[in-house]
Amino acid sequence: MKESLNISLVQSDVIWEDINANLNHVEELIKDLPETDIVVLPEMFTTAFSISAPQLAERNDGFTMKTVSRWAKEYNSLFVGSFIAEENGCYYNRGFVVFPNGEKLFYDKRHLFLGGEERIFTAGNKPLIFNYEGWNINLAICYDLRFPVWLRNKDLKYDLLILVAEWPVNRQFAFDTLLTARAIENQAYVCACNRVGKDNNHLRYQGGSVCIDHKGKVLGRLEDNKEEIRTFTIDKQQMERFRELAPFWKNAD
């Protein structure tokens, strides 16, 4: 069990629909990664936010997961992100958690975005809350952020919410505001990793990857419009002390 965790956010550009190129790009970005507990990648970090699922989907034992498993072992870190997955003839925006020992957990995005994603992909129906180094961690994907009931921290089931995203710049204010709200209302740390750059849908991404504490204080925000990796330290004892002193969670509906 660790009283504090180091969590590294990889705010990267994403090459359109090129799995190999994106894996190589991330490998180059993380080659000098300092010692850390958790590494967070953007949503659909191998393809960008594409609905070309039949051409891009992989299985859980495909090249992307094999590569991420190698990284997790090499860096002795938990790796988190999402990719386009296929299972039993259905396509998913599938979040993944890969442990250093090779264990994998998956979360299928619950809220599919309007205008294409909901027509191609199948929505998940189960949250993923898992334990790592004594911390309970909840994984969510992009559009899930807008739905506080789905992320409600009932009876303090989780200590850290990790959000992986491809959230465009024209809605950046909502992204920033909702992340802070989720931290405050759930009395939990929130760490979000968003991409930068421009995709083939002519959408621009500013980034704004951020780590927010259990009171809603921003511990740090990555530089806008720039590929960057930054590591934050989060403290469990401080959070638990605040939850005891201000037990707002007990009055949750």
Secondary structure elements and pairings:
Blueprint: E1 4-11, H1 19-29, E2 38-40, H2 53-56, H3 63-75, E3 78-87, E4 90-98, E5 104-108, H4 117-120, E6 128-132, E7 135-141, E8 160-165, H5 172-186, E9 189-194, E10 197-198, E11 204-205, E12 210-212, E13 218-221, E14 228-235, H6 236-245
Parallel strand pairs: 1-2, 2-3, 7-8, 8-9
Antiparallel strand pairs: 1-14, 3-4, 4-5, 6-7, 9-12, 10-11, 12-13
Explain this structure to me?
- With 253 residues, this protein is α/β, with parallel strands linked by helices.
- It has six helices and 14 strands.
- The protein has a single domain (4-251), classed as 4-Layer Sandwich (Nitrilase/N-carbamoyl-D-aminoacid amidohydrolase), CATH 3.60.110.10.
- It has helices spanning 19-29, 53-56, 63-75, 117-120, 172-186, 236-245, and strands at 4-11, 38-40, 78-87, 90-98, 104-108, 128-132, 135-141, 160-165, 189-194, 197-198, 204-205, 210-212, 218-221, 228-235.
- A hairpin with a 5-residue loop joins strand 12 and strand 13 (218-221).
- It starts with a strand and ends in an 8-residue tail after the last helix.
Instruction: Please give the number of β-strands.
Output: 14
Indicate the CATH topology.
Answer: Nitrilase/N-carbamoyl-D-aminoacid amidohydrolase
How much helicity do the residues have? 10-25%
- Structural class label: alpha/beta
Low-confidence stretches: none
Helix-strand pattern: EHEHHEEEHEEEHEEEEEEH
Task: Give the overall pLDDT as a whole number.
Answer: 97
CATH superfamily: Carbon-nitrogen hydrolase
- First and last CA, distance: 31 Å
Strand order of the largest sheet: 5-4-3-2-1-14
CATH architecture: 4-Layer Sandwich
